[in-house]
Amino acid sequence: MDDTHTTSPNQHAAPDDPVLGAMGDAVGALRRFANHTTEILDAFDRAAGMRETGASYRQIADEEPLFVDFSSGPFRELYDALSALRRRQARTLHDEGMTMAELGRLLGVTRQRIAVLLDDKLKRPGTSTAANVTEGPADTR
Asked: Does 135 map to a domain?
């Protein structure tokens, strides 16, 4: 794939446009992940071949690290970039007057999820998302 003639969304963005910046980050992560998919597919093919010849899953995991660790590296980077983009889109659309109910319908999630996406504490660098999300009351059903 020749990337020399493609334009990243953030190449023409105003420096203060967080959505276009996040979109550019997501484009970069998508390109890196696209290159990584061949490695994952090859690892899965090798793992399937090993299993078909009688290898245990433990043996496969020892010999084929991507069999169990495919969700780190470029995949994790892509997931994080897309999550950041979605938060910035939700924040910007909300700032431009879209209600949480409208955002929920647009993104296919609940208003409660939109409230989490809009929570500025979740965007602070160096903090874990899990550390900033408080658990609600236990489900008593």
From this structure: no
